[in-house]
Write a structure and sequence with these properties.
This protein is mainly alpha-helical. Helices cover about 50% and strands about 5% of the residues. It is built from 14 helices and five strands. A three-stranded antiparallel β-sheet has the order 3-4-5, with no helix packed on it. A hairpin with a 2-residue loop joins strand 1 and strand 2. Helix 3 crosses helix 5.
Length: about 375
């Protein structure tokens, strides 16, 4: 067979093997499988390492799919993982920027930011880069002589000299040393619901279970995953406290709203089905009755109520953003907000300060009045 023909056949064979490469759940984690999975044992070892490091299952899954896309591209390019250089990464990132996302509107649909809807967002590409960077950092940890093809950015510096040892040094995070390959990302503020929309959405829930779920997000600021992970023993109705297991398996105690405590109590006494599971929120009917409510089931509930109320922004996380916004507008101390919302870093909490529009406008009007009241020179 001529060399050129053999090269084409080999390339097609590799492409087919790469398309058969897939990600599957295995032993509580995620791993690559398929004919070409044996070419990337480092990826599976890295994903197992993330599980051992107590990363959330969603993060491990997301990194797994990011590395799956990278490995499929390497197979199509006939590029071994061990020979990846910065130049190869630049080619991969260019392929990500030019790729078309199946199932989305065509290039004639453009977002307000100017990005076409059929392309990957900068956040998606940067997450893929983070997964690849972590993979090679893991490899370098096992073999210090192995070079990392992901270049680092400039050395991060403290913004103010006193931040290292000042009074609030424990609350200040040093700027991250970002890779120079990262794309610029838009940084939208958290989207909160208006008071009327939040009240209308909450009123549309008819069962005690669904009212309790929405109330925990709106009045206690819980994430949807934290709500679904609640056990019956985590709710102290008499003492009005919740024990919440947040990101990174970090526990925190959150005060329980008095009216919401009554809703949960009625749900436990009158509506919650008998079950061997200790989870607080269970499926109420159907073949899965008595099993823990799943994330897909929660999304279905909110999708239904968005449809009947017409509140398009009525997603579970929007209720949590509404809670954070209410705290900011009430002038709650930033450290208290951080504890209530379960943020690992105070700068994440500080984003809600910019949402305190009522307080900002009040201060703006007061400043304008003071300026106007000053006598003109």
């Amino acid at each position: 067979m001529p060399t050129k023909v053999w090269s084409v056949v080999l390339h097609l064979f590799l492409v087919v093997q790469g398309s058969d490469l897939r990600l599957e759940e295995r032993d509580g984690g995620w791993a690559l499988s398929g004919p070409a999975a044996s070419w990337f044992p480092l990826v599976n070892e890295y994903l197992s390492y993330l599980v051992d490091r107590n990363y959330s299952s969603k993060t491990v899954r997301a990194y797994g799919y990011d590395l799956l896309a990278f490995c499929r591209w390497l197979v199509a390019e006939e590029q071994p993982l061990g020979d990846v250089t910065t130049e190869v990464l630049l080619r991969f990132l260019r392929a990500c920027r030019e790729a078309k996302v199946p199932g989305r509107p065509g290039p004639n649909v453009v977002l307000l930011s100017g990005r076409r809807m059929d392309q990957y967002a900068a956040t998606t590409i940067n997450r893929r880069l983070a997964a690849i960077s972590g993979l090679f950092a893991f490899a370098a940890m096992r073999d210090p002589q192995m070079p990392n093809p992901v270049p680092k950015g400039r050395e991060a510096h403290w913004r103010v000299p006193g931040e290292r040892s000042g009074m609030l040094a424990h609350a200040v995070r040093r700027p991250k040393n970002r890779s120079s390959l990262r794309l610029r990302e838009p940084r939208p503020l958290p989207a909160a619901l208006s008071q009327s929309d939040a009240a209308e959405l909450l009123a549309s829930f008819r069962t005690w279970r669904d009212r309790a779920i929405a109330g925990l997000m709106l009045y206690c600021g819980l994430r949807s995953a934290e709500v679904l992970a609640l056990e019956v023993a985590d709710v102290d109705i008499g003492g009005r406290w919740l024990k919440v297991l947040g990101k990174g398996q970090r526990e925190r105690r959150v005060p329980l709203d008095a009216d919401l405590a009554s809703v949960i109590q009625v749900y436990l006494l009158a509506e919650r089905p008998e079950s061997a599971s200790g989870r607080l929120f269970l499926v109420a009917k159907g073949p899965n009755r008595g099993l823990p409510l799943s994330p897909a089931g929660l999304r279905t509930i909110f999708r239904y109520h968005r449809g009947i109320t017409g509140i398009v922004a009525g997603h579970p996380h929007a209720l949590r953003h509404t809670f954070g916004t209410a705290l900011a507008e009430a002038g709650v101390d930033l450290a208290v907000m951080q504890v209530l919302l379960g943020h690992a870093h105070v700068d994440t909490t500080a984003r809600y300060i910019h949402l305190a529009s009522a307080h900002v406008k009040e201060e703006f009007d007061a400043a304008r009045d003071r300026i106007r009241s000053q006598p003109h020179q």
